[in-house]
Write a structure and sequence with these properties.
about 525 residues; mainly beta; 8-stranded antiparallel beta sheet; 2 helices
Length: about 525
């Protein structure tokens, strides 16, 4: 079979849940505070994947206004019971401190394209929920269990309870069926049945550089569960120079021919600081069965190159993407938190108009529309028409992770009304969330007229550019450290920052007048640089 180079879903695509229905494979991944919620990709051959839907797309299903960075939709699980699709997910409202507020929900649909139902509330006892359909027709809900007392652990185990779809609720007894291993931080459960065994696949070690997939089995779904002879069937924790790091949080699928594949999250750190600028991505591993235990081929360290049924076409990955706004918003784009899109953007006359709302990094209502960074190096470009009156109105182009790490080239005005270009940066600023001062010197520009804004990332270097009408691009500001737009430089380093780098357009009006900014187009141009880490 042909080789595919991991990851199969590059850029911010963590916590994969995989499913096969007939000849069709689907992977659901976390989206956290980005709206709409949950990305579902489709493939026929495990090599070529296409985004088909983000199903949580209306207020009744998801409203994340107020959710802090890296909260929102965690670890969805996508399943099919022979009749319809089921999707379970958490909308995390708080993750920091001793408590986590983690309401879990269940939605369903007759087809992957929908319509997806309004959610059924399940519980809030932990996160990373999963739904298992047993061969007797019963459905079982599992999630990690949290204990704010840490008696003895905050991640207290994996809890199991029956789900009654006709009643629309969890029923019957609830039991902690697995407490995890000495690696600790057990989460991400998936329950399966094969050859009379119940298998429980979990993630352990946290989502940074000690992450792992742990497998256990039992003859009874209620346990007791025995741990795999190798304990962790997948991990990079003991292989710091492996191409794929942070490997864990997996799910498996069988092909029609009976081969088993494990998908898992991974990171590809760059520089000596080991920063994953592309966030947590989805990779795939070939696996096999021995003595009713699953093993990863050449594991437990994940392989960069893996044999899969299909041949990947990389041409789409490397082609320049030029987005016009003549036919709505392209599916590559997302926004932050809110289901009420008419308050933050509109599309008409071939333009994307953003309505200035709260400041960049706001957890409530900011007008920011962006796409994932999926390459180590790239160029981005847009043209904006914006007429600010003072320094509290600004719009432009941003390389964005969250409120603690972004680079932002703005069109704004000084307090005297003179329009200018000004770069705002928040450079690993947790917990203050402050701009890095002093700011680079502003550049005065005419008070009317469109401005072209651009940025170029080559490895760890980020450079902004601008051009006025009829002029070529000129540099503005110094070289910035692009690797700051990474998990490792977010709110709680790699253990508490879970998304990835985006690039896009944004607009703020701190005067509260919703001043609009119009964008003509957006360009994302992949670049292959000598510093890029595709092969190791």
């Amino acid at each position: 079979m042909p080789l595919v180079r991991n990851p199969i879903l590059p850029g911010f695509n963590p916590d994969p849940s995989i499913l096969r229905v007939g000849e069709d494979y689907y992977i659901a991944t976390s989206t956290f505070e980005w709206y709409p919620g949950v990305q579902i990709h489709h493939s026929k051959d495990l090599a070529n994947w296409e985004l088909v839907i983000r199903p949580l797309n209306r207020r009744s299903q998801l409203d994340m206004r107020g959710d802090p960075d890296s909260c929102g939709v965690w670890a969805p699980c996508l399943t099919h019971d022979g009749d319809k699709f089921w999707l379970v997910y958490t909308d995390v409202k708080r993750k920091d401190g001793s408590f986590k507020d983690t309401p879990n929900y269940i939605v369903s649909a007759p087809a992957i394209e929908g319509p997806w139902s309004d959610p059924i509330y399940a519980n809030s006892s932990g996160f990373d929920p999963s739904l298992f359909h047993d061969d007797d027709g019963k459905k079982w809900f599992v999630n990690m269990l949290q204990d704010h007392r840490r008696r003895p652990r905050a991640f207290a185990g994996i809890v199991l309870q029956e789900f009654d779809p006709s009643a629309g609720k969890l029923v019957g007894p609830r039991k902690n069926i697995f407490h995890g291993t000495d690696l600790d931080l057990v989460e991400g459960p998936h329950l399966y049945k094969r050859n009379g065994w119940y298998y429980l696949l979990t993630a352990e070690g946290g989502t940074a550089y000690h992450h792992a997939c742990t497998l256990a089995r039992s003859r009874d779904k209620w346990g007791p569960y025995e741990v795999h002879p190798e304990k962790h069937i997948l991990s990079s924790k003991d292989a710091p120079f492996a191409a794929l790091q942070r490997a864990g949080h997996g799910d498996w699928v069988e092909t029609p021919e009976g081969k088993t594949y494990l998908v898992h999250l991974t990171g590809r750190p760059t520089t000596q600081e080991r920063r994953c600028v592309l966030g947590r991505e989805t990779a795939i591993q070939e696996a096999y069965w021995k003595d009713d235990w699953l093993y990863v081929k050449n594991g437990p360290v994940p392989s960069l190159h893996v044999e899969v049924p299909g041949v990947r076409d990389d041409s789409k990955y490397w082609v320049e993407q030029r987005y016009s706004f003549t036919e709505g918003l392209h599916k590559d784009f997302q926004w932050l938190r809110t289901p009420e899109t008419d308050r933050i953007f509109a599309i008409g006359d071939g333009k994307l108009t953003l309505f200035g709302r709260e400041s960049i990094g706001s957890w409530f209502e900011q007008a920011l529309v962006a796409r994932r960074q999926t390459h180590f190096s790239y160029d981005a470009e847009t043209v904006v028409d914006f007429s600010p009156l003072d320094e509290r109105q600004f719009a432009g182009l941003t390389a964005y992770y969250g409120c603690y790490n972004f680079f932002y080239l703005t069109v704004t005005a000084h307090s005297d009304g003179q329009r200018e270009l000004l770069i705002l940066t928040s450079e690993a600023s947790w917990p203050e969330g402050s701009l890095k001062l002093p700011l680079a010197d502003p550049v005065k520009i005419p008070n009317e007229g469109k401005v072209k804004l651009a940025l170029a990332i080559r490895g760890r270097q980020l450079q902004f550019f601008y051009a006025l009408d009829g002029e070529g691009l000129k540099k503005i500001g110094p070289d910035y450290d692009a690797t700051l737009i990474s998990d490792e430089c977010g709110g709680h380093k790699a253990h508490g920052s879970f998304t990835g780098a985006f690039v896009g357009m944004t607009c703020s009006d701190l005067n509260g007048t919703a001043l609009p900014a119009s964008f003509d187009y957006f360009v994302y141009r992949p670049v292959l640089d000598k510093t890029d880490r595709y092969e190791v």
